[in-house]
Amino acid sequence: MSVTIVDIAKQAGVSPSTVSRVISGHPKISPATVRKVKSIMEELNYHPNIMAKSLVSKVTNTIGILLPRPAEELFLNLFFSEMIRGVVTQAARSSYDLLMATGTTEREEVEAITRLVRGRRIDGVILLYSRQADPVISFLKEEKFPFVLIGRNDEHPDILTVDNNNVQAAFDVTRHLIAQGHTRVGFVSGPPTLTVSRDRLEGYKLAMQQENLSVNPEWIVEGDFLQESGYRAMSYIMNLPERPTALVVMDDLVAFGVLGGLTELGYKVPQDLCLAAFNNTPMSELTSPPISSVDIGIYQLGYTASQTLLRAVKGETVHQNRVLIPHRFFPRESSLHTIHK
Amino acid sequence: MSVTIVDIAKQAGVSPSTVSRVISGHPKISPATVRKVKSIMEELNYHPNIMAKSLVSKVTNTIGILLPRPAEELFLNLFFSEMIRGVVTQAARSSYDLLMATGTTEREEVEAITRLVRGRRIDGVILLYSRQADPVISFLKEEKFPFVLIGRNDEHPDILTVDNNNVQAAFDVTRHLIAQGHTRVGFVSGPPTLTVSRDRLEGYKLAMQQENLSVNPEWIVEGDFLQESGYRAMSYIMNLPERPTALVVMDDLVAFGVLGGLTELGYKVPQDLCLAAFNNTPMSELTSPPISSVDIGIYQLGYTASQTLLRAVKGETVHQNRVLIPHRFFPRESSLHTIHK
DNA sequence: CCTTTACATGCAAACGATTGAAGCTTCAAC
DNA sequence: GTTGAAGCTTCAATCGTTTGCATGTAAAGG
């Protein structure tokens, strides 16, 4: 049916082993043989059977990537493709393929990963996001299977991670607002179970503290990653007796909601309220006013995660188990309004 | 190292073949044996080696998906994750895995696919988008390898495709504008090499023709899928001696640009110009005014493509080789302004 | 001219599953 | 008591590679 190494061997008048060695670039094959075999491979359009190959070599040249479940994907949707593009680009550069795993429940996720790992289908895994008490992480650690987490997980300080310095990023953003004269700065958070939410909240608090500004707990609103939550947050915040003049918002999409809410209530951004958000999605430039946002290097996160994983897979020692991708703040109109006391 | 079928067999006191048959649910294995083997599999946490399995069975339970190249991805970025989610969900439902292939050039793309196909790594392929003169399509046809194209390709009317009825969709949108009294309707197109651009342009023209409205060629602007092109289009269109009062725009993102350009020029939407676009991305609800847009069922496209492919892979006869996913128009503020003559 | 050495290749055993055919029980039928 | 069939299980070949070891041959050294 399909052309195999044996066919090549026959055609070339050598043994299959020789052909195999030609393919793998074994040093002591005569140049003449190499040439002959290669030309025949070309001619018959031979491509090695990957299954057979990895059956004996125990190496699949494939990394798995666990997709977020629909329920959790909403907020990841925006990053998702960029991240994967980073992963796939780097993986392709090292001739690795990418296998996607998923599941609609946590149980299914674990099952999917288990099947791939124990079925020797992949050499390593990238987890696209971190959540607390993740059974997948526990499983992978137990199996001593190479994996990289994009994000951070405090329960497992020893695993390989690629992350942003979210504390610093939030700190920077908050300082940017304070520098313009704001003293009452609020924070619209994401789900508190996510590390990223907690980190950014912490960075915000640190900045406030460093500037000797008191944080009114009423200014901290918990949202999710959908615009509605920003919308809702506004009807709450703008009705506070002492309301903030600036807001740090966890995500562009939520900032959109915030913007919508404010417009509806008749407030103007940045005159009545300054906004700065995270993730610098293409949207943030397109709103009116454009939203200041922190670019967290999504593509880089994916790319680096893949790179780190491949090092681990190949057994190279990874010098640092936590890599931080630099972020960059893009101030735009939504936060450019100086307060004069 | 890893627990194999032989280990199970030893533990259970049966032969490997028996274990294999238990796994595959062979009818004539005694219930007692089944029970015993299964419990031991459970106990040892056995998972079959997928490579070995597919080496002999010639089936990989994996479908490939060719990612668009970075250069082309820009416009697909938005659909991308939704589509993949559709594919992966449906595939997972049939216990199929997803392998991603990519390449930075057309040549690399073909190579990647060739390696997977001839290396017997996958059972079928989904092509995420259609372009003319695609060497990948030719290759797959030659190899008689199962694949599904999301989109359409006129050079190959016989292949399996999943697509929208873009002609009809554009027709509907144009009629919606005309119904509000517009007689001068323009069109901001995508790259003319893409089938989708041509289809929508055709639908637009048909609607105009049907209503006995003349199409001024000046009203048809060619853009790409980036907001800048919408921006540029406006400085051109609004300077025309006879300018349109409504526009059909190929994509939400471009409509954003259009919106931005108009705002900058001091025009108001929908009062000065009505807009209707395609793809109904989450953005379109968030702009001011919100943009009317056609939902093309991106998730459905992916889901159905996967379903169709799996049928083909399993050798089931596919009743129709071109599946159309229904679209739905969401009128929003950007196009809701009636013209009174 | 015979041994040593190096180099190039072939042999054959894996890798972990599947599967057609053969084999062994057990029991019913004649 | 032999024969047959049915039911369950094992045997052994196979899938397409890789790889340690054996082998053959030619050049180099004594």
UniProtKB/TrEMBL annotation, chains A, B:
Domain of life from the UniProt record: Bacteria
Record PROSITE patterns: HTH_LACI_1, HTH_LACI_2
Keywords per UniProt: DNA-binding, Transcription, Transcription regulation
Domain HTH lacI-type as annotated: residue spans: 3-57
CDD domains: HTH_LacI, PBP1_MalR-like
Database matches in Pfam families: LacI, Peripla_BP_3
Keyword Mitochondrion appears in the UniProt entry: no
Record bears the keyword Ion transport: no
GO terms assigned for molecular function: DNA-binding transcription factor activity; transcription cis-regulatory region binding
Listed InterPro entries: HTH_LacI, LacI/GalR-like_sensor, Lambda_DNA-bd_dom_sf, Peripla_BP_I
Protein name as annotated: LacI family transcriptional regulator
